[in-house]
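Re: beginner question about structure tokens

> Can someone show what the tokenized structure looks like for a real chain? I only ever see the sequence side.

Sure, here's an example I had lying around. Input first:
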Amino acid sequence: MGKGKGEGFTVNVPLSPGAGDTEYGIIFEEILKPIALEYQPQLILVSAGFDIHYDDPLGGMEVTEKGFARMTQILMEIAEVTAQGRLAITLEGGYDVAGQKRSVKAVLEELSQASPPKKQDLLEKEKKDYPRVEPFILQLKEIQRRYWKSL
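And the corresponding structure tokens:
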């Protein structure tokens, strides 16, 4: 949560192993995006780690290339509204080079809008899976609500 004057500005979202595209998409859309829109950053900096990729031997998560593109899309939406599109992404790492390569490519394609992956199936899956994730989302909102009116 943060301490002192920084209390409320640390937003942790602890996930169990196996979380994938829909969980991350819902969390970005329902928790991180409203907080970011309320905070109104003038610049968004992302240290992009790809250890949540499904092929990563250490991460334990199930995010695909489309999931990384979806998260990038949401970050771009936030940047457009609050930061005049200013979004900087640096490569942090990951432990499966092939999965990292495909994921970085998906993020770059989303950023450039060269050939962004079709995400309609992910959006539909997020909507379908929302009831399963909703108790967790409600718990996160309850924790963060005292700091963020948008939740």
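Each token stands for a local structural state, so reading them left to right follows the chain. Residues 15-130 form one domain.
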